[in-house]
Amino acid sequence: MMVAVFALLSLALVLGWFGRRSIAMLCIFLCLAVALKEFLWEIHSSTYGYRMPWIQTRHMDTPPVAQHVLAYHSITHSTVQTRGGLL
Fold first, then answer.
1. What is the Cα–Cα distance from 22 to 29, expressed in whole angstroms?
2. Measured between alpha carbons, how far is 80 from 69 in angstroms, rounded to an integer?
3. Cβ distance 24 to 15 under 8 Å?
C-alpha cells in the first residue's frame, strides 16, 4: 500500500512538473485517499475496532513505578574559580 501512496505522489509531482496540474491534483487526492485507507487498515483490529489501545490517554490515579533504581547520579554545587574571580 505504501508503494501505491509513493507512486501516486511521484506521479503527481511529475505531472505537475510537466504542466498537467488538474491531473496532478487528482493524483494528490487519490494519494490522500489511499493513505487514509492504509492508516485505517493498519489500526483496525477485530478485537478493539478502530481504537489504538497502545496509546493510553486516560487519567491514572497511580502511575506505574519501576521496582529498582537503574541509575543514580548526584549533582553537587561547587564554585569554580577563574583568573578574575568566581563565576
1. 11
2. 31
3. yes
